[in-house]
Specification:
It contains two helices and four strands; from the N terminus they run ααββββ. Helix content is about 35%, strand content about 35%. By secondary structure, the chain is of the alpha+beta class. The chain has helices at about 1-25, 40-55; strands at about 55-65, 70-80, 90-95, 105-115.
Length: about 120
């Protein structure tokens, strides 16, 4: 009889432990996976920036590794869409990613009209 009484208790403990494990897993933020190269770093930076500033990404104009294993990415976005499209206002944002791919910071470094050229 004693073994039969112990079995439900052991099952209850296992169920309680499983619920605690699931609860702890929900509290932990998901870990970013490390970008495997410049292309993946550019995609991650563009995606993260677009979510933060709610503007469409036009492309990336710069990707370079940092000394600490992260990435510095220049992301071009449409700030004001106009007709004709050549008069739309664009901006370049500098996005810094940590080694694990998470965004450290961003800042706008340039605003320009689409039809303008760098001299």
């Amino acid at each position: 009889m004693r073994d039969a009484d112990a079995a439900p208790e052991a099952g209850h403990m296992a169920e309680h432990s499983t619920r605690q494990d699931r609860s702890a897993a929900r509290r932990r933020p998901p870990r970013a996976s490390e970008p495997s190269g410049a292309g993946e770093a550019a995609e991650r930076a563009a995606s993260d920036l677009a979510k933060l500033i709610d503007r469409p990404v036009e492309g990336c104009s710069e990707v370079s590794p940092t000394d600490d294993g992260g990435w510095l990415v220049g992301v071009d976005v449409v700030e004001v869409s106009r007709i004709p499209d050549t008069t739309s206002l664009l901006a370049t944002y500098e996005v810094e990613l940590a080694e694990d791919g998470s965004m450290r910071r961003y800042r706008r470094t340039r605003r320009y009209v689409r039809g303008s050229a760098d001299i």
